[in-house]
Amino acid sequence: AFVGRADALEIPLLNIALRISNTIFIDRKDPASRQQVREQVAAYLAKGISVVNFAEGTTNESTGLLPFKPGLFRDVLGRPVRVAPVTLTYTGEFEKVDFVGQDTFFSHFLRLAGHQSLTANVHFCEPLRGDDFDDLDGLITETRRRMLEDLVTREEIDQSAYPELTAG
Fold first, then answer.
1. Pair 55, 49: CB distance under 8 Å
2. Number of H helices and number of E strands within the chain?
3. Taking the mean position of all CA atoms in its chain, how far away is CA 88?
4. How far is the C-alpha of 4 from the C-alpha of 6, rounded, in Å?
5. What residues contact 45, with CB distance under 8 A and at least 6 apart?
6. Closest among 153, 132, 38, 47 to 83, alpha carbons compared
7. Which of 37, 43, 42, 39 shows the shortest CA–CA distance to 23?
8. What is d(CA 149, CA 4) in angstroms, rounded to the nearest whole number?
9. What's the rounded mean pLDDT across residues 48-72?
10. Does residue 124 register a pLDDT over 90?
11. Which phi and psi (to 5°) does residue 102 adopt?
């Protein structure tokens, strides 16, 4: 199951795919929605269903990582739940693949479909367990560190901008 923004339901055709794909929708401005998502995620995890959460909560035009939102990290902290950090990079001949700014879903989709050679690469980092951590900052920092260590092998990243890489 994916955790996704509720406003994605406003995008024609995409909304159909999202509804049939087990997506959990969140309206981040609504505390009740955030609580409902937490409950639904907990129910999925209890059933052994994996949940994909984009910890940055948005996309960006640069390499590296944005700060993580603490949301679902709170729900796995101290629990016997596996956290699998994942990075995404692109290879091939391409220009802009970022979905940011004034992009609409369709302009972004058409731009991606127009690339002659574009490969999205999904990289799985060493997993963690929520019950190996007793503080939220530690869990988030270690997750970010593993992702950044992976990304520095694939992208040009200013490592000095990330204390997670130099700590320890």
1. no
2. 6, 6
3. 9
4. 6
5. 51, 75, 76, 79, 81
6. 132
7. 37
8. 26
9. 83
10. yes
11. -90, 10
**What type of residue sits at position 33?**
S
Residues composing the chain: 168
What the block records as the tokens of 102 is 């004034």
The pTM (predicted TM-score) of the whole model is 0.81
Structure tokens at 42: 């907990």
Amino acid at 22: N
Residues 67 and 54: beta-carbon distance below 8 Å:
no
The pLDDT tens digits of the residues spanning 125-139 come to 999 999 999 999 999
3-5 vs 24-26, strand pairing mode: parallel
Please, are residues 138 and 47 in contact by the beta-carbon 8 Å criterion?
no
Output the CA angle 56-7-120, nearest 5 degrees: 50
167 secondary structure, DSSP code: -
Listed ranges 3-12, 27-36, 133-142; the one with the highest mean pLDDT: 133-142
